[in-house]
Design brief:
Elements: E1 4-6, H1 11-18, E2 26-29, H2 35-40, E3 48-51, E4 60-62, E5 66-70, H3 75-80, H4 82-87, H5 89-95, H6 101-106, H7 109-115, H8 123-128, E6 132-137, E7 140-145, H9 146-149, E8 150-152, E9 155-156, E10 163-170, E11 175-180, E12 191-198, E13 208-214, E14 221-222, H10 224-227, H11 237-250, H12 261-285
Parallel strand pairs: 1-3, 2-3
Antiparallel strand pairs: 4-5, 5-10, 6-7, 6-10, 8-9, 11-12, 12-13, 13-14
The structure holds flavin-adenine dinucleotide.
Flavin-adenine dinucleotide binds at residues 27-35, 37, 52, 71, 97-99, 103, 106-108, 110-112, 114-115, 120-122, 158, 163-164, 186, 188.
Length: 289
């Protein structure tokens, strides 16, 4: 299907273009690694493709308490940023596993979260780190937790005319990302797990562990039962084993061409254990990887 490719130079211009026509007739494009394939497969047939390439959304800024990553920063740029590697090891580790180096030069974080794939490697660490999105349109700006934003594969709370401007992540946050796939590159994870140790919340003195699984079901899953087995900043071997066991029990699993449910369950248990152990090791070494 023919379509118009447009290159707005300001956010105002982009918002105006994205509002044009019936819902779905104008679509944003960042790296195009998902969108162009989906158009090729006739999943979408927009009349207007609005490239975000010339918008000022391509910087990574470190504040005192959070990192702000523009939605169109290529994954490779974030992956190679030593500040990200040190402050957000779970994200850094997941980034290095996406597709191939070639793909990561084009693909963006904004595109990955709007695609909202069940097997995204980036959603688990971002959700585990309590990432928030800044979403904007001609009507204004709003901020939404990523965990609320994602509803399912290709389904999010993004409204027609809106775009994701940036992702805001509290920093620093020790953690790890563990995954399993058949081939090391250009393959999709059968299971991916992010483990993050958050500082204490709500007046508590205990740290707040986050364990989030991807690849197991249509939507990324926070495993609260598993988290609640980790009672102290330095969990014992028994607590770690219990957290891994509970993760495998509570997660919902799918069987598809990539793996059977029973295999995914076993993988998840092993990956949760490994993720917690790595996080603790990093904390002992003083953070970062
Ligand atoms: C060969 C291959 C291997 C892959 N391997 C992996 C992998 O291992 N792990 C993994 O997680 N992913 C993988 N992917 C998926 C892909 O790389 C990511 O989803 C990518 O990050 C998408 O980013 P993009 O900039 O290319 O998005 P695009 O294709 O440009 O856009 C994707 C969707 O997001 C919308 N969009 C993009 N940016 C914005 C914005 N700022 N605001 C609003 N809407 C927006 C578009 O309209 C479209 O609907 C793979 C893809 C391919 C083709």
């Amino acid at each position: 299907m023919p379509f118009e490719l447009l290159f707005p130079r300001s956010l105002e211009e982009a918002w105006t273009l994205l509002e044009q026509g019936a819902p779905g007739s104008s679509m944003a494009m960042a790296g195009g690694t998902d969108l162009l394939l989906a158009m090729d497969f006739r999943r979408f047939a927009p009349e207007r493709v609005v490239s975000l390439a010339r918008l000022p959304l391509d910087t990574v800024e470190f504040g005192e308490k959070e990192v702000r990553i523009g939605s169109t920063v290529p994954l490779r740029t974030i992956e190679l940023d030593p500040r990200v590697r040190k402050a957000l090891p779970a994200l850094s580790e997941a980034l290095a596993e996406v597709g191939s180096v070639q793909l990561r030069h084009r693909a963006t974080l904004g595109g990955n979260v709007v695609r909202a794939s069940a097997s995204s490697d980036l959603l688990p660490p971002l959700v585990a780190m309590d990432c928030r999105l800044t979403i904007s349109s001609r009507k204004g700006r709003r901020s939404l937790p990523l965990d609320e934003f994602v509803e399912g594969s290709w389904r999010t709370k993004l409204q027609p005319g809106e775009l994701v401007e940036d992702l805001r992540i509290p920093s620093p946050l020790p953690g790890a990302y563990r995954w399993q796939r058949v081939r090391p590159a250009n393959d999709i994870s059968q299971v991916g797990v992010a483990v993050v140790r958050q500082p204490p919340h709500d007046g508590s003195s205990a740290p707040d562990w986050r364990i989030v699984a991807g690849g197991t079901s249509p939507r990324v899953q926070r495993l609260r039962g598993s988290e609640s087995a980790l009672l102290s900043p330095w969990p014992s071997e028994e607590e770690i084993a219990e957290a891994a066991k509970r993760a495998a029990q509570e997660a919902r699993f799918a069987t598809d061409l990539r793996a059977a449910e029973e295999y995914r369950r076993k993988l998840l248990e092993a990956l949760v254990r490994s993720g917690i152990e790595s996080t603790l090791e990093r904390l002992r070494e003083g953070g970062g990887r």
